[in-house]
Prior knowledge:
By secondary structure, the chain is mainly α. Helices cover 54% and strands 8% of the residues.
Amino acid sequence: KSYLVQYRSGGRTRRRSIGQHGVLTAEEARNEARKxxxxxxxxxxxxxxxxxxxxxxxxxxxxxRFLSEYAEHHCKPSTRKGYEIVVRTCVKPNLGTxxxxxxxxxxxxxxxxxxxxxxxxxxxAVSILSKMFNLAEDWGLRTDGTNPARRIRKFREEEKKRYxxxxxxxxxxETLVEALEDxxxxxxxxxxxxxxxxxxxxLSEILTLRWDYVTAHHLELPDSKTxxxxxxLPREAYDILSELPREEANPFVIVGEVPGERLINLQKxxxxxxRRAGISDVRMHDLRHTYAxxxxxxxxxPFMLKEILGHKNLSTTLRYAHLSDDAVQKA
Length: 331
């Protein structure tokens, strides 16, 4: 046996279940019925609200819609791939079955805390959740202004400050020349690393570089992580490009093993090069850090460097522009 409350809304008779007899007493059911009828008097519709609650989509479905409708059309492939990894490994396993409308801020705080052993992943996951819940509000899946992932205190992230000293730069240069002379590395792999050093470009920008983008003084990239870019081309970099053999019917500057395609993986050659140069802890992205540091130490204005590196925010540029220990000591 169950207790029901019956009412009229929108010209129709509606019924809403209150609960089972035995679990609720008759008096408790009457009190609950009075509350529901009070909501009806204010224009509410308890039965419809209940159905809407039962039909509400889950966080997993929000993740899928976020990736297909937002990330697919508004994000770069690398960004979209990062979103997919976080959603697959963190968000769905922990929150996927929860209804979008039921997720509370306390749950997001607990979710973030449970990932404390991976602070970078935890912070990225909360940022992505915040974006998804903002979109859920825009799509009418959640009440405006109720994003539960806002104002979550992020874990402290240790900034990776690694760049090459003058001696390490010389050693790397000598190693690249030796690798090219003894044939242990291809001219395309060596040239790609040298272009990273001389231009401060991102790895993807060099690996996807086409001959159509190269001019006498610039690299004209129609698209990059931050949109269209015009990168100044130093004479040393231009000389490297001039000496690179061009393959017919291959539009790419850094040629791969597959005919007509570009080099896909520079990590293996770089691992061999850095071990040989005695700088095993240096990542390829640290070459970009080094470019920024050298530029700042030689008087390049951070605002100008921001344009050269293709950053949207000056704060990002300043994180790259680390001063060397020698420069600090001189100061």
